[in-house]
Amino acid sequence: MADKKYINRLIDGDARAFDEIYYAYKDLFIGVLRKSYGHDYDHAIDLYHRAMAALDNNVRRGRIKHDELPDEKLKAYIINTGKWISLNDHRKRQTPMTFDTEMVFRKGNSIADDEADAERSEQLSIIRKTVLEMKMPCSQLLDLAIYERKTHEEIAAIMGYASAQSVANQRHRCMDKLVSFAKSNLKKSGYDLR
Amino acid sequence: MISDNEELIELLEDAIVEKGAIAHMQDLDRRQKRHRRIWFSSVAAAAACIILFFGVSLKLGHDARTVGYAFNPVDGQMGGSEITALMRNYQIAEARDAITEAREKLAQEIDNPSSSDPEYMEQLSIDSQELDLLEAVCLLREGRYFKAKKALQQIVKDNGAFASEAQSLLEAL
Predict the structure, then answer these.
(1) CA distance B139 to B93
(2) What ipTM score was computed for the predicted complex, to two decimals?
């Protein structure tokens, strides 16, 4: 299928389009990354997951528009994102830097090597860690609401809440708690949020 | 530097999406592995069945040929005919053609016998039974295990003049 159609379906919220893109470019991506950087399979698949997650996030955030990626560009976009992540990981081992999916879009394929980017990258790493440490029921609730884009009614049915309003209230509490944890973790690393 | 709460929430949501997407992709990988495993198992099972089928066919064909060629058609009550000569020369296809031809002639003779002597009629019946046995041996020599076995079992069942030969061939199979 043409890349443009894949992206348009993804933008329109067709969840199967993501799976199709994932399978379509997986072997190619792994082959290229292994050949170019000598990564083993596990590392290459990890990079592919992160590159695809960046694509998903950028589509959700509206950073990629309908018909924006013409045919054959999606493949290049994913591979270049993977290469960028790989290079950034390599630099991270030399300087305290971490990967930032958001920067992939903002900076295209360039390597951010100034201090501000390094700082931001580290902050995003802390945020990611905070999300991974999130406990039940907040982790499931926020996953369903934000990643799976379920309605409050659907979440109430899945998680056994009395009503959609209860879900809304709980979601609000969970997000507050998450923000507070993130701020606290950032503060511990010397980043005081205003 | 993260400037405000709104930006922090946006980044937290991005991280949640990333976490969900990675978990989903890991699930896709597991599913793909499972499908590949099932596919490989099915192909391996099909290949094993085919190998087994051909292996068994080859083995049975070999057994049938061994028994068929170990049998000497001039032993016992048979021998001297054109058919046994062909069989001794390993001309199995020609021998089978000759059997078919002989069977047709014999059928005509039984329908319109040139003599009504009971001994003559008895001889015609024995000739017919001999053709049955020779045909079964031809089938053995062609490696047609099941068809030959069925023909031999029928001869044993009919309990005619060559039942004991058919029985020993069956035992050798």
Answers:
(1) 10
(2) 0.77
Task: Kindly determine whether residue A49 and residue B12, on different chains, have CB atoms separated by under 8 Å.
Answer: no
In 3-state terms, what secondary structure has residue B63?
Answer: helix
- Express each pLDDT in B76-125 by its tens digit: 445 457 788 787 778 888 888 888 888 888 888 888 877 778 888 888 88
Judgement on whether residues A17 and A82 belong to the same structural domain of the protein: yes
Buried b (16+ CB within 10 A) or exposed e, B26-62: eebeeeeeeeeeeeeeeeeeeeeeeeeeeeeeeebee
Pick from B32, B96, B141: which is nearest to A48 by CA? B32
Q: Which amino acid is present at A99? A: F
Q: Which residues of A touch B7 (CB under 8 A)?
A: none
Interface contact B8, partner A, CB < 8 A: yes
Query: Are the beta carbons of A159 and B41 closer than 8 angstroms?
Result: no
The full set of domain ranges for chain B reads: 62-172
| Contact A4/B at CB under 8 A | no
Q: Which domain holds residue A70?
A: 3-117
Query: How many domains does the structure of chain A reveal?
Result: 2
